[in-house]
Amino acid sequence: MNIRNKTPLHRLPVFRVLRAQALVAVLMAATCAGVFGGVAGYSALLGGLIALVANLYFAYKAFRFFGARSAQAIVQSFWAGEMGKLILTAALFALVFVAVHPLQPLALFAGYVLVLGTGASALLLMKSNPKH
């Protein structure tokens, strides 16, 4: 029997990581816009948003179940979330490259990598109590 997690996303500990990623995306965009100009600013923002949207999808899919009885459903939802995240990332990059002109690819990838790095390092930076 699979036990569905009814906790809203904003109440899960992963929400703190997503919020930190959103903050980094905005700060990176503002910094790039101030230093390199508007095109670099929105390019960095788009890169950060690609990473953030993909991570939001993963969090939604991955944390749908809990409990020992739901172990198989948890593994399947993590796998589906990761595959969906990769497909969504590729689709969003393709959409940005086709639809957004002018674009600064270096700023786009810098925003993406910085937001991904924030997610990867957020677990190291979190306090021992994940509820605060």
UniProtKB/TrEMBL annotation:
<feature type="transmembrane region" description="Helical">
    <location>
        <begin position="20"/>
        <end position="39"/>
    </location>
</feature>
<dbReference type="InterPro" id="IPR005598">
    <property type="entry name" value="ATP_synth_I"/>
</dbReference>
<keyword id="KW-0812">Transmembrane</keyword>
<dbReference type="Pfam" id="PF03899">
    <property type="entry name" value="ATP-synt_I"/>
</dbReference>
<feature type="transmembrane region" description="Helical">
    <location>
        <begin position="106"/>
        <end position="126"/>
    </location>
</feature>
<protein>
    <submittedName>
        <fullName>F0F1 ATP synthase subunit I</fullName>
    </submittedName>
</protein>
<keyword id="KW-0472">Membrane</keyword>
<keyword id="KW-1003">Cell membrane</keyword>
<feature type="transmembrane region" description="Helical">
    <location>
        <begin position="45"/>
        <end position="63"/>
    </location>
</feature>
<feature type="transmembrane region" description="Helical">
    <location>
        <begin position="83"/>
        <end position="100"/>
    </location>
</feature>
<keyword id="KW-1133">Transmembrane helix</keyword>
